[in-house]
Amino acid sequence: MKTSLKVTVCGLMAVMAGLAVMSMTFENQRASSDSKFSESHSLNEREVVTSRENITDAAGNLKPEAVVSDNKGAQQVIEWQAALPSQFQGTRVVGALEVDEQGNLIVNSQAKQVLDYFFTAQDDASIEEITTWLEAYFSEQLVSPAREQASRFLAQYIDYKTQLNQLAVEPDVWGRLYDPGQLVTPSDLTSLTRVFHEREALQSQVFDQATQAALFGEENDYDELMLKRLHVSLSDASEAEIQQQLASLDQQLPQVQQVEREASQLAIHHKELSEDIAGSDSATQYQAYAQTYGDEAAARLIALAERRKAFDQKRALVEAYRDALGENASAQALNDYMKYELGLSNGDIQRINTLEQIAK
């Protein structure tokens, strides 16, 4: 019996307990699908004090200062965007709140993505704060009966996540799963399988069968397949048999997930390769990249590395200039220095300013 194997664990954080939300990149791809919800459904039971053109920016994001009033004339300040932690700056709500022809909320994976978008702040905000933001978002996007249905769905989802947190798992297993380069053992597989079935049972307890399938069906199918891959990888079969069985299992994945899995594996390999050749001269790096990706890709990777190096050097100069100015380090002075002294583009200036905000 093989006691350990280095494996790719893309998506297995969801197997452990579903506590980690999907990467925003993947979610945004799903969020690009056409939504059944129309702007004409929004706010038609409230009087908009300021026109929609005035309460949204050029990108369509709601301005924090936007003010609306209900039928009773009581003004309500839409503050949820302004209250979000800094990590949400420059992002848009992922997913969609869809309604059917009768105005009922369609509880599906798109609605779950909306909740998960807000719950990514759970390390920096309380459940009460997140609930407040979501209720404000529901009021902005939905009218009765969908608005009340969204609130009930949120209560169910919080109940589910609360109970999900109580599923026990060994801390060291968490660490190995978050790092694709770490070892996964047969004992880990046992823990994964147990939590997977406990999670499915909890979903059945909190949600009806149709809702469970709509919210978690695709995720559960994927995770079950990943468990099968781990079982095969840790078996006593020969290497050739293992690879044949893994290839057969991968063919069961939807086409989109096959592409995503291949991209994930390529990204992991590239990260490992880049770490191995870090500190080498450009010629050595080029040779390593060329052997793996070909000459054209190698040339682009080297050029990208050079641009990144130059950017980092100029960013260091900006930090030194900021420190030298001290209390006189106004945004205008720094922007002028970056633009006229360092020759940075507007895009690079914005990037440096964003990185500075994130670092605070």
Summarize this, please?
It is a single-pass membrane protein. This protein has helices at 12-16, 24-31, 52-55, 80-83, 109-119, 127-141, 146-164, 171-178, 186-206, 209-233, 239-250, 255-277, 282-293, 295-325, 331-341, 346-359, and strands at residues 5-6, 67-69, 75-77, 98-99, 105-106, 183-184.
In words, what does this structure look like?
With 360 residues, the chain is mainly α. It has three domains: 5-17 and 167-257, no CATH class; 24-164, no CATH class; 279-359. The chain is built from 16 helices and six strands. The protein has helices at 12-16, 24-31, 52-55, 80-83, 109-119, 127-141, 146-164, 171-178, 186-206, 209-233, 239-250, 255-277, 282-293, 295-325, 331-341, 346-359, and strands at residues 5-6, 67-69, 75-77, 98-99, 105-106, 183-184. The strands form three sheets. A two-stranded antiparallel ribbon has the order 1-6. The protein has a two-stranded antiparallel sheet with strand order 2-3. It has a two-stranded antiparallel ribbon with strand order 4-5. Strand 2 (67-69) and strand 3 (75-77) form a beta hairpin. Helix 6 (127-141) runs antiparallel to helix 7 (146-164), helix 7 packs antiparallel against helix 9 (186-206) and helix 9 (186-206) runs antiparallel to helix 10. The chain starts with a strand and ends with a helix.
Main beta sheet strand tally, sense and closure = 2 strands, antiparallel
Total of DSSP H or I helical runs spanning 4+ residues:
16
Using only C-alpha atoms, the radius of gyration works out to: 25 Å
What is the averaged pLDDT score? 74
Number of strands: 6
Oligomer: single chain
The percent range for strand residues is under 5%
Strand order of the largest sheet: 1-6
Specify the overall morphology.
flat
| Domains, number | 3
Structural class: mainly alpha
N-to-C SSE string, H for helix and E for strand: EHHHEEHEEHHHHEHHHHHHHH
What fraction, in percent, of the residue positions are helical? Answer: 55-70%
Name the poorly predicted regions.
Answer: 1-78
Ends apart, CA distance between termini: 50 Å
Keywords: Cell inner membrane, Cell membrane, Chaperone, Lipid degradation, Lipid metabolism, Membrane, Signal, Transmembrane, Transmembrane helix
Main location: membrane
InterPro entries: Lipase_chaperone
Function: May be involved in the folding of the extracellular lipase during its passage through the periplasm.
